[in-house]
Fold this sequence. Notes:
eleven-stranded mixed β-sheet; 11 helices; binds pseudouridine-5'-monophosphate; binds manganese (II) ion
Amino acid sequence: xIPNLINRADPHAVALETTLLLHGVPRSGAxxxxxxxxxxxxxxxxxxxxxxxxxxxxxxxLTDAELAELLAAPSVPKANSANLGVLMHRGxxxxxTVSTTMELAASAGVRVFATGGLGxxxxxxxxxxxxxxxxxxxxxxPVAVVSSGVKxxxxxxxxxxxxxxxxxxxxxxRTDRFPAFYQRESAGGVDARFEDAGDLAEFxxxxxxxxxxxxxxxxxxxxxxxxxxxxxxxWLDLAMERARATGAAGRDLTPALLAAVHDLSGGxxxxxxxxxxxxxxxxxxxxxxxx
Length: 291
Ligand code: PSU
Ligand code: MN
């Protein structure tokens, strides 16, 4: 159990993370994105539940005022499983990543969570080992996470294999392929394909209860917002050069790469990122409303 957890969740809660808002999109668009996601969850009959650390307190269900304060703060650290406890101890605000959003959601009894893409195995990992703590979180916390696979700044196929190694069930919503965030498909596959949100919700309910671990539900980016693989490769190579030049590493690497591709693509990747998060949020809400 987490001490002094503020739990405002109800049985049809959909968890939403704050790293996406505070580090994944330009700050100027974060409040609008939060409002859009909240409205989508409500439209499908579920309850939007934003998660963060507020002055060191874990909050499951931020109020509008708390969220506004986080969005206005000049720099809010990113909390993963490793530094969450220290940030609590120090009484700091923090944005929660997939791993810590799962941890706090699970402790509040929230079973469904929507995000964009998971962290995973970074490219060139053989020389510079960097694997997100998001992956191991699935072995510890019984939450179904709806995402568009893993961020395509990563080694997508290696990440898919790592999920298999960890024994994480990966199920596709109307897809047989493991999606690569901006692309609908990668060379990786899924453990099973589901056509129907009701059937998927029934599976999620029994699987979480059976295993007490996480489930990854993958939902490809809407076809009209998919990004051409050739264009993407060019932007990513340039973004990686920029990141290397500035020396971004560790927790700063993912936000640095995302900001660089959003800039290089003239906003096309940002648009796709927002559209896929909206689509994942709609699916998560449909699952949660049926639990
Ligand atoms: N998905 C997005 N944008 C993001 C992230 C995911 O569309 O900003 C965040 C998530 O919070 C994820 C984190 O947990 O990036 C992974 O960071 P790292 O690679 O440092 O573990
Ligand atoms: Mn990392």
